[in-house]
TrEMBL record:
Biased composition (Acidic residues): 1-10
Cross-referenced Pfam families: TetR_C_11 (PF16859), TetR_N (PF00440)
DNA-binding annotation, residue ranges on this chain: 47-66
Species the sequence originates in: Streptomyces morookaense (Streptoverticillium morookaense)
Residue span of region Disordered: 1-21
MF terms (GO), sorted A to Z: DNA-binding transcription factor activity; transcription cis-regulatory region binding
Protein known as: TetR/AcrR family transcriptional regulator
Coiled-coil ranges (or none): none
Residues in HTH tetR-type domain copies: 24-84
Keywords from the UniProt entry: DNA-binding, Transcription, Transcription regulation
InterPro entries: Homeodomain-like_sf (IPR009057), HTH-type_TetR-like_transc_reg (IPR050109), HTH_TetR (IPR001647), Tet_transcr_reg_TetR-rel_C_sf (IPR036271), TetR_C (IPR011075)
Length: 214
């Protein structure tokens, strides 16, 4: 924080209090602006003053509510998790996992969301608070989709003690790997292959929890 900028007030963790009315509109505008900067320029160029200017709100308002760039990113990720589409229920494990994989693929190839996630993931490798916020984002999304695996277990498609969260992570993992490590297009075919591989492994018992003997 440079000289002359207002000191942030201590208050609730950003995102833990749901604002209404004008406060909600300000929050939405600021989060939109923050996401735009991340997508366009990356984490290193995210500045609270610039975000305030883009959002057309007072700098003092932004510093008072969020205080730091990492707090703003944490709130942005929480909002994104809450605004993400709910899981799709198709009646089969493969259908559900394919819907999940295609949603991840569309998000990561979106002109705005793709660069935004790359920027946040890069920042999470060196900033602990951003990493914590990113973990919360994925915990929320995995928890949203995990019931489809438990439903599959109820139908007898996978072993009863299958770790639902690990199956959902297995769907997304190859898509993020391709996004971050290659210039090969992340297309729907890649999403479908990821879903098929995760479904096959789950049916084979690869994600069954191994309980320790006492």
């Amino acid at each position: 924080m440079s000289a002359g900028e207002p000191e942030p007030e201590q208050g609730p963790e950003p995102g833990t209090v749901r604002p209404g009315g004008r406060t909600a509109r300000v929050r939405a505008a600021v989060l939109q602006a923050a996401g735009d900067v991340l997508a366009e320029q990356g984490f290193a160029h995210l500045d609270l003053g610039d975000v305030a200017r883009r959002a057309q709100v007072g700098r003092t308002t932004v510093y008072r509510r969020w205080g730091t760039v990492t707090a703003l990113v944490a709130d942005l990720l929480q909002d994104m998790a809450e605004q993400s589409l709910p899981r799709t229920e198709t009646g089969s494990l493969l259908g559900d996992l394919r819907a999940n994989a295609r949603l991840v693929q569309r998000t990561l190839t979106d002109a705005r969301q793709g660069p935004l996630f790359k920027a946040v993931i890069a920042a999470a490798t060196w900033d602990a608070r951003t990493a914590e916020a990113l973990h919360r984002f994925y915990d929320t999304r995995v928890a949203e989709w995990a019931p489809c695996v438990r439903q599959a277990a109820d139908r007898g498609e996978v072993p009863e003690d299958t770790d639902a969260h690990e199956v959902i992570r297995a769907v997304s993992a190859p898509l993020y790997y391709r996004l971050l490590t290659s210039d090969v297009p992340l297309d729907r075919a890649a999403a479908d292959r990821a879903a098929e591989a995760a479904a096959a492994a789950a049916r084979a018992g690869a994600y069954v929890r191994h309980h320790k003997r006492t």
